[in-house]
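User: quick one, sequence for these tokens?
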């Protein structure tokens, strides 16, 4: 399917050469310029397949480098700007990177790629795609130690085919890219899928700061000026966007037809607020190990409380409550581990009702209270994170067998306000205390949504606690 993307790109360059392919602020790259850029750099990137890292926080530069490396048949690995220095060093070592495109601070020799505007016009068709391109996606998971997921052309082809049917992109689309290009979801659905359709990708460089608690004004301004038709968000960014629209008494542009939201559980209350502000949000589900998207609610068949129907070409079964995925989107494997063959056990709990997948939470995050109650922490956390002041939260069973919740704050919140947000939960799921952590704390927020759970025990031991729900709780043996 990546070969189809580049073939389609070449056709767009011939038939609609001046149409915008990529845009970021004042920078605009037409389909003709993008095709010329790929042809120009095919020579610079010629040779045996290599592992080439992309190290830049500029999303347009990251997209250009990704396209050039993929077209050249190499393995690309983005160095996430939100990783710590130790995580970035681990990534470069484990992936055996031998060249780096981007930051002058990169520890290895840089490879210069001329900007598309400097490339000579394309006078001949693009050469065929060099086969064998792969991408290595590093995900910190729940342990904080990055793991390299190997995604090849087979996985990309299957994911793009399924998304093409589910989303139905066309050349009139404008995709507003808000998630970092280091995330596989944005690479697949926010870059390659729009280019396949001949659409425009509009980048918002300020979105990275907003994702970690920075100002939302640039994101709202980009949405208003670009008048996008599609975008992808994580729940924390969606919550802040809804809040910003509410604070300014404005609605989202009526050009929007689909905003996919995923990465963490989204509360029904937040989805309803988003719809009221003109945001056509549709929850989906996926993981890097299965090429990012497994299921998605479509505009014509959305059901709140579910993550939608499984993509065409992907198979899902439920085995003792666990979601098990098989088919061509399952990864080749982790770097340094045996190849994956057959199905992939996701570690997520779920069920299927009326053809729609429902995700209940991580199997290894399930909390069993001393009273024998099973609690999926994502359920409790989503109720809290519907408030834009709380971009993430983590429910934790402390060593004294008391439930506590660590709330990550963008702006101050009181314990009484926490109680109000959690009041609709059954008494057994209500935490006994709350601890507050600042959203600015390095490494605490995950860009894919949610909190880094590897830090919960440490935070529990160092942050002051405040009691919650002093009323008598239900006790069930």
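Assistant:
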């Amino acid at each position: 399917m990546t070969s189809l993307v580049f073939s389609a790109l070449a056709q767009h360059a011939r038939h609609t050469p001046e149409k915008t392919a990529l845009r970021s602020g004042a920078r605009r790259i037409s389909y003709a310029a993008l095709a010329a850029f790929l042809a120009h750099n095919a020579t610079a990137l010629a040779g045996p397949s290599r592992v080439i890292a992309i190290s830049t926080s500029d999303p347009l530069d990251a997209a250009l480098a990704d396209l050039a490396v993929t077209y050249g048949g190499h393995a690309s690995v983005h160095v996430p700007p939100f990783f710590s220095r130790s995580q970035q060093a681990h990534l470069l070592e484990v992936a055996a990177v031998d060249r780096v495109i981007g930051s002058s601070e990169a520890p290895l020799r840089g490879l210069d790629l001329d900007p598309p505007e400097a490339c000579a016009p394309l006078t001949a068709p693009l050469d065929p795609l060099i086969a064998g391109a792969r991408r290595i996606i590093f995900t910190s998971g729940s342990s904080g130690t990055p793991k390299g997921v190997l995604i090849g052309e087979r996985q990309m082809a299957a994911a793009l085919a399924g998304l093409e049917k589910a989303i139905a992109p066309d050349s009139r689309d404008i995709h507003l890219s808000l998630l970092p290009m280091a995330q596989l979801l944005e690479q697949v659905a926010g870059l390659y899928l729009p280019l396949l359709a001949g659409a425009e990708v509009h980048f918002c460089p300020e979105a990275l700061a907003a994702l970690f608690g920075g100002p939302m004004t640039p994101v709202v301004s980009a949405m208003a000026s670009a008048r996008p038709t599609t975008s992808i968000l994580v729940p924390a960014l969606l919550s802040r966007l809804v809040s910003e629209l509410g604070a300014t008494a404005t609605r989202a542009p009526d050009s929007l037809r689909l905003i996919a939201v995923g990465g963490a559980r989204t509360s029904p209350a937040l989805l309803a607020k988003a719809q009221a502000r003109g945001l056509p949000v549709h929850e989906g589900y996926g993981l890097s190990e299965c090429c990012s998207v497994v299921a998605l609610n479509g505009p014509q068949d959305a059901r709140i409380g579910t993550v939608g129907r499984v993509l065409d070409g992907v198979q899902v079964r439920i085995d003792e409550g666990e979601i098990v995925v098989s088919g061509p989107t399952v990864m080749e494997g982790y770097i340094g581990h045996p190849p994956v063959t057959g199905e992939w056990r996701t570690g997520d709990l779920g069920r299927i009702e009326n053809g729609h997948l429902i995700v209940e939470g991580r199997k290894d995050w399930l909390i069993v209270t001393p009273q024998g109650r099973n609690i999926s922490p994502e359920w409790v956390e989503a109720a809290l994170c519907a408030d834009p002041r709380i971009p993430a939260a983590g429910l934790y069973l402390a060593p004294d067998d008391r439930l506590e919740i660590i709330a990550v704050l963008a702006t101050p919140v009181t314990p009484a306000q926490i109680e109000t947000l959690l009041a609709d939960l059954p008494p057994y799921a209500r935490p006994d205390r709350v601890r507050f952590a600042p959203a600015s704390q390095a490494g605490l927020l995950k860009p894919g949504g949610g909190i880094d759970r590897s830090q919960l025990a440490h935070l529990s031991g160092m942050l002051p606690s405040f009691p919650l729900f002093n009323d008598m709780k239900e006790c069930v043996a």
